[in-house]
Amino acid sequence: MKRSGIALSLMIALINPVFAQSEAGAIFLLIAPGARAGGMGEAQTAVANDAYASYWNPAGLGFLDGRELAMMHVNWLPGLADDLYYEFLAYRKKYPNLGTVGGHLIFLNLGEQIRTSETGDELGTFTSYMTAFSLSYSALISKNQSFGINAKVSYQHLVEIGAGSEKGKGTSTDFGFDIGYMHKEWLSPNLTLGLNLSNLGPKVSFIDPDQADPQPTNLSIGLNYSLINGEFNKLNLVYDVDKLLVSSYPDMDWDGDGYIGGYDEDGNVSPGNDYNSDGKMEIAHTDPIYLALFTSWVNDWFLGGDIDYGSNSPGNGDGVIGGYDWVDADGDGNIDGGKWFDSDSNGVVDPGENEMVQTPGQPNDEGWGSYNEYGIKEVGNSKDRSISDELDRLVHNFGMEYWYGKYFAIRTGFYYDKTGKISNPTFGIGLRFSGYGFDFGYTYGEQGHPLTNTMRFSLNIEY
């Protein structure tokens, strides 16, 4: 399905560009709502004390009384396009002796895009959008503890019809749920713990069910420490850490025979098939959710074999692990890559010629080359992965909020995702008066980054 690059770029940059976006579907569910959260580095799991709790941690709703309506508007990714916007609407109400019922509605407009044929001819325009509806319930399980749950339905409308030989529509309707827990005065009278496991559900598919992606199941653990809690001055320090519970593997040689696949599910020789002799799938795949809840903690360093690389990343390899040696033709000590060819036919790798020379034989033969034709190490690269690869995938959110009385707040925070190359400071303010609340959040960053200059505006009404 060919279409404008805007939507594709958006799907890469919607959230932190790693968060395994290429590994998960419906990633718009991870976009952070609320200008208050936007000003605090998106750290809210252990705060969650307004209607936005239905998103951040439904357990927070159990501590709230009365009714509240909240809404937010943001021009999303202003550095990428000018017709992308995100809307959020939330509501909550406390029912004595029953608990709190709430929910939220999300709408993401991806703008107008150009439809093209398989040969690149323009066929007109179309619009894309995504939406989700969640229903929340929360109740206290003790004076200081609560639980919450969300049930949600999401709909993604990327394109009305496929292109070329593709059949069906580029739409998807899915369901899932969230589970939240909050414990106030945890270990200390001033400390709150929050946990939220979100987007549990079946895989997301569009035209081809065989290419379905797992939902962006995400675990958030939050701490909220009340540093100052006076009558007129309050200062809270907040920290969240996020872990995407998706296990995704590129083409990997799990059994160490030097080849990707070559067998069927029963371990019978079947050239071109996707399994090894043990019946383990070796082409790119993801674990089902019931396994990913556990394997996602170790899949980037402990699970899997040698990776079959293409020119610069996993995937699009040649199906063989290694097969080339490195000849430092120019003596610079670096692998400059590129398959070696003897340009002057003298049988010698001369300076200036490429530096990878093909090794004759079969994988696992003595002297078999460790590199692919692009100079990337393949033989033994599974041993080069470590626990640090898992730690690098954690997303950290730091926030600080100061309240003067009940009417004015100043906020700041920091959003850090090492693998996604995001390190954005955030700022915000809040005003409260006579049941009405207004919040503004601003994300700062380097010029050219999609999130730079993102401004969020929120309105709350308690009644």
Account of the protein in words:
The protein has 463 residues and is mostly beta strands. It folds into 2 domains: 5-198 and 215-247 and 396-462, Outer membrane protein transport protein (OMPP1/FadL/TodX) (Porin); 251-286 and 306-384, no CATH class. Helices cover 6% and strands 40% of the residues. The chain has helices at residues 5-13, 35-39, 53-56, 289-295, 387-391; strands spanning 67-75, 85-95, 99-116, 122-140, 145-159, 170-183, 191-200, 218-229, 233-244, 248-249, 252-253, 285-286, 306-307, 324-326, 356-358, 395-404, 408-417, 422-433, 436-443, 454-462. The strands form 4 sheets. A 14-stranded antiparallel barrel has the order 1-2-3-4-5-6-7-8-9-16-17-18-19-20. A two-stranded antiparallel sheet has the order 10-12. It is elongated. It starts with a helix and ends with a strand. Mean pLDDT is 87; it is low at 1-21.
